[in-house]
User: Fold this.
Amino acid sequence: MADSATPDAGSSAADASDQTVTAQGRSLAEYAAVIQVAFPALFEVAPVSLLGEGWDSVAVETAGGVVFRFPKREPVAASLSMEARLLPFLRGHLTPDIPVPTYEAAPATGFEWGFMGYAKLPGLALAAEAIDEDNIERLAAAIGHFLAELHRFPAERARALGAPGPRQWKPPYVALSEAVLPALRRQLRLNEFNRVRRWWREYLADERAWDFPATLVHGDLAAEHLLVDDEHRDLLAVIDWGDAAVGDPAIDFVGLMRAYGSEFTWRVVEAYGASGARVDGDLLRRVRQLAAVVPFYAVRHALGAEDEAGPMLEEAISELRAGPVLAESS
Assistant:
């Protein structure tokens, strides 16, 4: 699972005319200048607006409506390159629209991993409060159908187009547990730590957790990555494919559960099955297990942060305490 829950690096918008706003220590005017130099034929670049900044990248929008994403680390740059290869082939396979990268810039001065851009897709992020009696069934059906389409895309074809995915599923989770448990021993109360350690031991020993039909997955289906129209809340597009991979299809229900709750998520699962996808008890079990894993990614990210590591770790510990591993024992 991704270490970020933000769309195109975030959801907080800045005033398009405020070029004093900074992201990763740079003004928006600097971003505009770099984009213009890389793509001199692109009209209406400045002023740019800040769409957001997350763990992985910074996203800005030009005055002409082109979204550019600037990776913060080399692995994120590799993910953007994967998107550029995969998404053009995937677009015609799915009912909702998806972004297709049009602009790719090689590493430039001050941006050592380059950046990527695409035309902004219309729509609003699907907020939980926007789901009501009039649209809940329609939205659940649309998202379930989309996921069934996505998971039917040939996995080997996705791998050939650059989608990552280990042949063995357990090792990344073993590595995650080994990264966070020593720190959690110091941060948690003894009974809490024992609960966490026992949960990890049982999870890693559960053979059913690692026995599934691998499919192409979105990998970070958070609320801000589902775009709907303003009037009817019909699903229009799915964005931010940087975490696309070949893996467990259950992962694509985890973000829905965190954003909209279990009732809506199970409606999506029903629609997913009605669209011909495989639904069984093991899928539902893995969804719950993977949802429990999510707070541990925040802990690992906080441990690796150079700035504000203390506050970030406190926030991650709070999320862990509110999550299923510890909340059930409270």
Observations:
- The CA atoms of residues 214 and 247 lie 5 Å apart.
